[in-house]
Specification:
CATH superfamily of the largest domain: Enolase-like C-terminal domain
Number of strands: 15
CATH topology of the largest domain: TIM Barrel
Shape: globular
Protein name: o-succinylbenzoate synthase
Helix content: 25-40%
Bound molecules: 2-succinylbenzoate, magnesium ion
GO biological process, one term: menaquinone biosynthetic process
Number of helices: 12
Keywords: Lyase, Magnesium, Metal-binding
Pfam families: MR_MLE_C, MR_MLE_N
Strand content: 15-25%
Organism: Ligilactobacillus pobuzihii
Length: about 350
């Protein structure tokens, strides 16, 4: 399906005007169904995989490994998928559906199942953050004002290039007290005085300042900064996170269930957080209601230190395809109590 966006979502990678999404449906022998959202975009600007390539991998590679296969635990999926390299977004779509189905078989919420697996406790009401795309200054201020009214726990602004930091400085001057984050999506360039400019913004954190390959430059910047750097795009595995933290390239990890390859590797990241102590939070991919529900279940675990990019889907879409839609109340989302992700798909979705 393709959902039109209410307003283009602009980052330094691309301008999204619509969101193509695919839902994977799995059925068990008793007829119970599990669903997982495929989070690849239509174009390979943010990740290598796209909706078309990931669907191809699912249909032509993953499906044949999984049909009529018995599972004991959802983690068993990863044993079956071991021969397949990479393709995390394709794997994550299937993995989310397996976890949803497993939770439904247990007649428990996905959040409960994840908390038990991670041997931890969780919240029923989860404070969330919002990510605001690149807009002219006036519109940015109006958008931030609205987000403050909705009591989002943390506001993240996208930025494009060093010069655009002036716009952030103007926003900071206008709102001196809010928890502000910036995501450069790799668009900044190392420059004299950059660290001072960044620290002056008083950010909670700065995400992905330089391009993914600029590990040393990022470590040099982090060494000069009081502000914490956060890695999102370079983190495709637990090993990536440990390496980045140990090399002092960043102090915080934004983890995306889909980019990691699903909830099974996401739980491994939670375990690594417990072992190594780096703070984690849950990133977003402009998901539809089902993808948001998967992330919300994960982000309900007490290990998630900062509000995630789990804004209500009404930020992006006039009409979501999953219900009940999540509505923000006092900057928080309620974890659904139904079994599995707790969301249902609206009827009439096209089958492919
Ligand atoms: O870099 O965090 C990112 C959306 C699409 C692709 C990359 C990113 C984002 C976001 C999260 O900023 C937005 C959201 O899901 O609300
Ligand atoms: Mg990011």
């Amino acid at each position: 399906m393709t959902l039109p966006l209410k307003q283009p979502f602009v980052s330094s990678h691309e301008t999204l005007t619509q969101r193509e999404l695919t839902v994977i449906e799995l059925t068990d022998v008793s007829g119970l169904r599990g669903y997982g959202e495929l989070e690849a975009f239509s174009q390979p600007f943010y990740t290598r995989e796209t909706q078309v390539t990931a669907r191809w991998i699912i249909k032509n590679v993953l499906e044949s490994l999984l049909v009529n296969v018995e599972f004991d635990q959802p983690e068993d999926l990863y044993t079956k998928l071991a021969p397949v390299k990479g393709n995390h977004l394709a794997k994550a779509a299937v993995d989310s559906a397996v976890w949803d189905l497993f939770a439904k078989q247990q007649q428990r919420s996905l959040a409960d199942v994840l908390a038990k697996k991670a041997d931890t406790t969780r919240k029923n009401v989860v404070k969330v953050g919002i990510s605001i795309g690149i807009l002219p200054l006036e519109q940015t201020i109006r958008r931030v004002e609205r987000a403050i009214k909705q009591e989002y726990g943390r506001i993240k602004l996208k930025v494009q290039g060093n010069d655009d930091l002036q716009r952030i400085a103007a926003v900071r001057e206008y709102f001196p007290a809010i928890q502000l984050c910036v995501d450069a999506n790799g668009s900044l360039k190392p420059a004299l005085g950059l660290a001072e400019k960044i620290d002056a913004l008083q950010l909670t954190m700065l995400e992905d300042p330089f391009s993914m390959e600029q590990h040393e430059q990022t470590a040099e910047l982090q060494a000069k900064l009081k502000t914490d750097l956060c890695y999102d795009e370079p983190i495709e595995s637990v090993a990536d996170a440990i390496q980045a933290i140990e090399a002092h390239e960043c102090r915080v990890i934004s983890m995306k269930t889909s980019v990691l390859g699903g909830l099974t590797p996401a739980l491994e990241m939670v375990a690594a957080h417990k072992r190594y102590g780096f703070p984690i939070w849950c990133g977003g991919m402009v998901e539809g209601g089902l993808g948001r529900a998967t992330n919300l279940a994960l982000a309900s675990l007490d290990e998630f230190a900062f509000p995630g990019d789990i804004s209500e889907t009404a930020q992006y879409y006039e009409k979501d395809y999953a219900r009940p839609g999540f509505v923000i109340q006092h900057g928080a989302l309620q974890v659904p109590t139904g079994s599995g992700t707790g969301v249902e798909l609206c009827p009439g979705l096209e089958r492919i």
